[in-house]
Amino acid sequence: MVWFNGIVSVQPICEIARPFILIVIFLCPVKYYTMHKRCYMVSIKKNFLRFLPYGTSILFGLIIYFIGIYLNDNLKSLFVNVSAAFLSIPLLFLFYEVFRKFSHRRLNKEIYNYAKLQIDSEVLSILSRLTKLVYPVELQDLSINSLNRFIWIPMEELHKLLLESQYLGFQIYNKWDKCEKYFEDVLKNTFVLDKLEDESIICIIEILKAIKSFEQAFSIEDLYIQVANNESDYKITGDLSTINATSRLLLLKKVGNEQYQVKDFGDFHISDRDKLLCTFRVNEHIVNYFIQDILNVLASIIKWLDSTGKEIILDTNQFKLITKCNTKS
């Protein structure tokens, strides 16, 4: 069984920056050395592929040189000159790359930290939204430990949870357009992409593809079946009079006489507003397709974390960390 072990610490990104919280999420298998060995092998593979062109050219140059010293003078001179070219060109490029990266090391690090901060914030939002989509409103827990467990949720548990639970329309009609647009904008930013590793860029693309596939699942006819009309313990507020296609709305839960507590928010199409307080359940005949799309999104997030240091960096101005404590009398 594989699980997360969350460790929270405070870390400033730079002296003039506002404080950030670094939430380190270790992907911890039962046997730690397995994970350590896998990370070590990934690092070796990346460095090997990076220096393979240089090494191939240098090796080919040495082969030509040693062949040439056994030939006559005319051919020997030709082979030595060709060998010198094969040796000098990759060495010049290698020295250029090393000095270029060294001279831009600080800038590259700051841009990478900024990009990871922004992407990690969106990744955490995706995890939160998936949690809200899988668990009924009254069972939702967005604590760090809960998100750690959710990202590794077994298929069997997810299957049981989706079939046995009932959901508000507010949970299932929330649009993912802004999430998709965010990752599309990241992939258009060549300045940021230039500072990311190829593996990290591939992970971003996989997250975007997984989200698009996941959202398409909602177009499946009868994915959700309505089982009840408007829920009296909740109400919707926001710009309900707007004629825009999509608007931001709030879900409020009644906690007393004319008193309400904000439970969730989201963006909804005007055609879905009348169904937001209705109760639905997942169609048992289609649930397996839906489960696979959810697991694909989680797998793409895990791959992103795995390629960027197994940590999530958060801005405390965007997210508030709440720790739940159990007290004994």
How is this structure best described in words?
The protein has 329 residues and is of the alpha+beta class. Helix content is 53%, strand content 18%. It has helices at 32-68, 73-103, 105-134, 144-150, 155-164, 169-172, 177-188, 190-193, 198-216, 287-307, and strands at 3-10, 20-28, 167-168, 224-228, 234-238, 246-256, 259-269, 279-282, 311-315. It has a three-stranded antiparallel β-sheet. A hairpin with a 7-residue loop joins strand 5 and strand 6. Helix 1 (32-68) runs antiparallel to helix 2, helix 5 packs across helix 10 (287-307) and helix 9 (198-216) runs antiparallel to helix 10 (287-307). The chain is elongated, with a radius of gyration of 27 Å. The chain starts with a strand and ends in a 14-residue tail after the last strand.
Q: What is the averaged pLDDT score?
A: 77
Q: Can you write the helix and strand succession as a string?
A: EEHHHHHEHHHHEEEEEHE
Number of helices: 10
Beta-strand content: 15-25%
Largest sheet: spatial strand order: 1-2-9
List keywords for this structure.
329 residues; alpha+beta; 3-stranded antiparallel β-sheet; 53% helix; elongated; disordered N terminus; disordered C terminus
